[in-house]
Amino acid sequence: MTTHTHPKFGGYDILVAVAMNVMWGLNLIAVKMGVDLVQPLTAAWLRQVMVMLICLPALRIVEGKMRELILLGALAGGAFYIIVNISMAVSTNVSALAIAGQLGAPFSLILAIIFLGERVHKYRIAGMALAFAGVVMIVFDPHAADERLGLGLTAIASFIWACCSLIQRRLIGVPVLTIYAWVGLCGTLVLLPIALIAEPEAMASVSQLPIATLGWILFSALGSTVIGQGAMSTLLQRHPVSTVVPLTLPTPVISVMAAAYWFGTPLTPVMIAGGGVVLAGVAIVTLRTAQAGEAKRS
Q1: For a pLDDT cut of 70, what percent of the chain falls above it?
Q2: Residue 181: exposure state from Cβ atoms within 10 A (0-12, 13-18, ≥19)
Q3: Element housing 36 (H / E)
Q4: pTM metric for this prediction
C-alpha cells in the first residue's frame, strides 16, 4: 500500500475553495444575463471565443491525447453550451435550473458503471435515486410548470457534462489551461456556423455590443472556466480527491440563492424540498465516489 503526503489544508486552500465556489455559483447569473442581453447561441460563441483567447498561450499539441481533446472541445465547448443557453433563454426561474443541473453527478456515476465497469454499493445507488427523485418533485411543482422545457434541456445538458467528465478522466496530466484552450477553440469553430445561421442579426451586431453586456459573458468565461477550473486543479494537486470534491457542494446552494435574489424568482416549498433532496443525493454520490477514488489510489 502506497501512502501519499499532502500539505495541511490551510488558509490558502480555504481562499482557493471559496473563490472556486463563488465563481461557479455566480456563473448562472452571468450566463442568464448574457443570454437575455444577446442571444443564446451568439452568447455561447462569444464565451468560447473569450475562453480561447484567454487560454491561447497554453494551446499545444498533446501527443496521444488529441482525439480526446477535440471530442471534449466539441461536446464541452459546443453541444453543452447550445443546450444550456437555450434552456436559460426559455426559462425564468433559474433557481430551478440550478437544482436540475446537479444531475451531472449521478449521470457521471451511471456512465462510469456502464463504460468503466465501476462497482457501486447501496449508498451511491440511494444517492442517485434521491437526486432524480428531487428533480421529479420540482417538475411536478405547479409553480414550475412553465419551466419544464428548461428543466428537460438542463437534464440533457447534465448528461452531456457527464460524458465530458468521462472523457476528462483520460486527460489526467494535461494542464487545465491546455484543455480549455482546445475547448475554447473547438467550441468557437462548432458554434460559429450554427450561430450565423440561427441568429444572423445577433452575430452581425456583436461589434456594437455594450461593454457591460460583454462583461457578463467575460465573467462567465474568465470566472467559471479559468478561475473556477484553475482553482479546482490547484486543490487537486495539493490534496486528495476525497478532500477536494466535497468542497464543491456549496456551489449549487450559492447558485440557487443568488439566482433567487438577483432575478426575484420565488423559492416555493416544493422547490426547496426538492432541492434539499437533490443536494442530499448529490452529496452522497459525491462523497462516496471521492472516497472510492481514494481507496483505489491507496
Answers
A1: 95
A2: buried
A3: helix 11-37
A4: 0.86
CB-count burial class (<10 Å; 0-12, 13-18, 19+) for 119: exposed
- Per the structure block, which three cell numbers stand in for 141? 411543482
Query: Which among 52, 34, 51 has a CA at the least distance from the CA of 43?
Result: 34
Summary mean pLDDT of the chain: 88
CB 226 within 8 A of CB 51: yes
The DSSP 8-state label assigned to residue 292 in this structure reads H
What residues have CB less than 8 Å from 179, skipping those under 6 apart? 69, 72, 168, 171
Q: In this structure, are residues 94 and 259 in contact, taking their beta carbons and an 8 Å threshold?
A: yes
**C-alpha closest to that of 97 among 110, 106, 86, 105:** 86
Quickly list DSSP for 192-243: HHHHHHH-HHHHHTGGG--HHHHHHHHIIIIIIIIIIHHHHHHHHHHS-HHH
Q: Which three cell numbers stand for residue 68?
A: 480526446
Q: What number is the average pLDDT over the span 157-183?
A: 90
- From the list 258, 199, 238, the residue with the least C-alpha distance to 41 is 199
Query: How far apart (Å, rounded) are the C-alpha atoms in residues 183 and 166?
Result: 15
Q: Which helix (H) or strand (E) holds 2?
A: none
CA angle at 289 for the pair 128 and 80, rounded to the nearest 5°: 65
What pLDDT score was predicted for residue 22? 93
Tens-place pLDDT, residues 267-283:
889 989 999 999 898 88
Alpha helices in 73-121 (DSSP H): 80-89, 94-100, 104-116
What DSSP character marks residue 169?
G
Smallest CA-to-CA distance from 44 within 5, 79, 4 is with 79
* 92 vs 144, more confident: 92
